[in-house]
Amino acid sequence: MKQPELKLIYKGIKEKKAKIKTIREMYKNALENHKNYPSILEDFNALKAKKTLIESKIKDEMEKDFDIIDDLKREIQEDERKLADMAIKELVNGNDANINDDWDNELEPIFKVKYKKV
Question: 3-23 pLDDT, tens per residue?
């Protein structure tokens, strides 16, 4: 694929995202103009505040458990990075990087390309 084709696809993605944004804004405006929506939203926010208060209280009571969760999440991210690095190394060396899960399903690595400003 040539550079102009990449730019064309990238431009198409941006246009589609802009269309999605426009539709979401129209939806938001329609909700705000609905006769019952503002009062329902107010009730919802009051209940949401009560819910948050209860969750916060329970979370404080279980602080040590949530610290364990945070540690485990960090460890998982590190392991996923290691796994990706090892899979790339295997593929670069011409080896198969597929693995099998606990139920003997074959899993293959998937790589994602993203662009960011430089």
Answer: 788 889 989 999 999 999 999
Q: Under a CB-based contact definition with an 8 Å cutoff, are residues 10 and 115 in contact?
A: yes
Q: What is the pTM of this model?
A: 0.58
- Could you tell me if 109 and 97 are in contact, meaning their C-beta atoms sit under 8 angstroms apart? yes
pLDDT digits (tens, 9 = 90+) for 32-57: 999 999 999 999 999 999 999 999 99
- Measured CA to CA, the distance from residue 101 to residue 108 in angstroms comes to 11
Say if CB 90 and CB 96 are below 8 A apart.
Answer: yes
CA–CA separation, 44 and 47 (whole Å): 5
Residue 108 region by backbone torsions, left for phi larger than 0, else alpha for psi between -120 and 50, else beta: beta
